[in-house]
Amino acid sequence: MAQHYFDPDPDAASRPGTVDLVLPDLHLRLNTDRGVFSPDKIDLGTRILLETVPAPPNGGTLLDLGCGYGPIALTMATRAHNASVLGVDVNSRAVKLAAANAHHNHLDNAHFHLIDNTGAPADEHALLNGPFDAIWSNPPIRVGKQALHSLLCTWLARLSPNGTAHLVVQRNLGADSLQRWLNDNGHPTERAASRAGFRVLRTHHP
Q1: CATH number for the domain harbouring residue 122
Q2: At what angle do helices 71-79 and 92-104 cross, to 10 degrees?
Q3: Which residue from 84, 71, 185 is spatially nearest to 125, judged by alpha carbons?
Q4: Can you say how many angstroms the Cα of residue 1 is from the centroid of all Cα atoms in its chain?
Q5: Cβ atoms 43, 66 nearer than 8 A
Q6: Which of 146, 137, 139, 204 is nearest to 173 (CA)?
Q7: Is the entire prediction scored with pTM above 0.85?
Q8: Which domain holds residue 177?
Q9: pLDDT tens digits, one per residue of 71-98
Q10: Phi and psi of 141, rounded to 5°?
């Protein structure tokens, strides 16, 4: 059976690698492996998000929804040293890699947790309840609309009253329809950026 990056426990044979995340303000070397999202390079959507999103609050609690091996969460942790950064993902291999990458890059303010197939936290860590002062995400569009909508509803509801979420979505994978759905379901959303076939959507607390 084909493996997907959103499988909870990928059984693809391990083939460790590394990628470099280079942005104007940081350079992180990240460990990767088969069975996780974009193991051979930083995904273009992730890069566009990180190059266009405003700086996160330098305090409070921040979330990377669908963290993979950690490029978004670790960028947040680098840019906001006084914040607590959480990354969540359904993929156990990805969560272990992200935690190791935080350690190797000396980012002690980033922590990673598993969620289950419904998007709910798999443990009782108090910070997972929010509220989150910012959410950044390259969400798992290919998981299917129903699962994606459930995931987004679970976590966007935990934005703080002044919090903002930024989501990067490929236009031909439904960015515009997702924007409409978010607006129709109580999450005021506008397009914050558009580049190379991707939309960065900005979503506010209802």
Answers
A1: 3.40.50.150
A2: 30
A3: 84
A4: 26
A5: no
A6: 139
A7: yes
A8: 17-204
A9: 999 999 999 999 999 999 999 999 999 9
A10: -55, -35
